[in-house]
Amino acid sequence: MANKKTSIGGQALMEGIMMRGPEVTAMAVRRADGRIVMEDFPTNNKVPKLCKLPLIRGIYGMVSSFTVGYKCLMRSADLYADDLIAEEEAKEAAKEATKASNVTPSEEASADASTTAETVSAEETSPVNETVKDEVSDEKSAPAKEEKKEEGGVFGTVATVITTVIAVALMLGLFFWLPTFLYDISIAKLASGLTGFAARLLRSVCEATVRVVLLLLYMILVSQMKEIKRTFMYHGAEHKTIFCYEKGLPLTVENIRPMRRFHPRCGTSFLVLMVLVGILLGMFVPFTGWLRVVCKIALIPLTVGIGYELIKLAGRHDNLFTRIISAPGVWFQHITTKEPDDQMIECAIAAMEKVIPEDKEKDNW
C-alpha cells in the first residue's frame, strides 16, 4: 500500500475539512469549545456512462465537486457563525454580570422595593386577565414569527442567488473581458505588424499573463484575512494527511506533521492548468473584442475537460512532463496552503478515517 495514488480528495472549510472518498463523504469541523463535529453522507457514485468519457468526465467531476464542496462550506460557515454569536452572547452576559456586581446594597434594596410595589400593583389589577392576555398575545405572535422566519428564508435565498450572479459576472469580466480589453488598447497597436499564428500566439500569451497576475493578486489579498489564513492552514492539513495515507503510514499527528503540504492534484493546480490550457486554445480563436470574449467563455467546458485530464495524468505519474505541468500549481500552493497546527491535523485525521473504504482497492486513483 506504500506510495499508492488515492482517489480520496478533500477541501478546506471554515474551521474544518471535508474529505470525499469513493463511498462516504465526511466533514470535520472544530467548534469554539474544542469539540470536533462530524457529519457524513454517501458519496454519489452513480455517474452516467457519457460522463465517464475523457474530457466530459472532467466537466462532470468539477460540477459534482463544486456542488458537494459548496454544501459543506456553507454548513461549516453556519457552525462558525453559531460560535461567533454564542461568543458575543457570552460577552454581553459577562458585561451584565459585571454591572450587577457593581450595584451598591442601598441601590439593590431600593430596586427590590420598587419591584415589590410594582408586583403588588400588578396583582391588584386582575392577574387572571393579564395572564390570559399574555397567552393570547403569544398565540397571535407565533404565526407572525413563523411568517417572518419564512420571509427571511426567501430573502436569504434571493440574496444568495443575486450574490452568486454578481460574483460570476465579476469573474467573467475580470478574467475574460479585462485581459482582452487591455490587449486591444495597448499591445495590439504595437504588434500591428504581426499576422496569422504569431499574432494569435502573442495575444493569447499576453491575455493569459494578465489572468495569472489577477489570480495571484486575488489570492495574496484574500490570504491576508484572518479567516482565510486559517482556511489555508486547514488546506495544508488536508494535503499532509492525504500524503501520509498514500505512504501507508498510520494517521497520527506525529506522522502527518512532517509531510509536504503541496499536492499535484490540488484544486489550485487545476485552476493554474486551466489558465495554461487557455493559452493553447486562445491561439485558435481568430476574433477580437467582444466576439473573442464570447468564444473564450464558450471554450470553458473544453478547457475544464483538458485541465482535468492533465491533473489526472499528474496524479498517476511522476516524470519530467508531469513535474513541469504541476510546477505552476505547486508555486501557487505556497499561497493557498499554510502549515497547520496539531488541532487542524486532528480534524483532517477525523475526516480521513471516516472515508477510507474497507476494500483499500476501491480508492485507487
Protein architecture, described:
The structure is a single chain. With 365 residues, the protein is of the alpha+beta class. The protein has helices spanning 56-101, 105-124, 127-185, 187-190, 196-222, 226-246, 253-256, 267-282, 289-298, 300-316, 320-336, 342-355; strands at 9-13, 16-20, 24-30, 36-42. A four-stranded antiparallel sheet has the order 1-2-3-4. The longest helix is centred in the middle third of the chain and has 59 residues, at 127-185. It is globular, with a radius of gyration of 28 Å.
Q: Give a short account of the largest sheet.
A: 4 strands, antiparallel
Question: Beta-strand level of the residues, as a percent range?
Answer: 5-15%
SS-based structural class?
Answer: alpha+beta
Q: Give the total of beta strands.
A: 4
- The termini sit apart by 13 Å
Give the arrangement of secondary structure elements.
Blueprint: E1 9-13, E2 16-20, E3 24-30, E4 36-42, H1 56-101, H2 105-124, H3 127-185, H4 187-190, H5 196-222, H6 226-246, H7 253-256, H8 267-282, H9 289-298, H10 300-316, H11 320-336, H12 342-355
Antiparallel strand pairs: 1-2, 2-3, 3-4
Descriptive labels:
single chain, 365 residues, alpha+beta, 12 helices, 4 strands, 70% helix
Brief characterization of the structure:
70% of the residues lie in helices and 7% in strands. The chain has 365 residues and is α+β, with helices and mostly antiparallel strands.
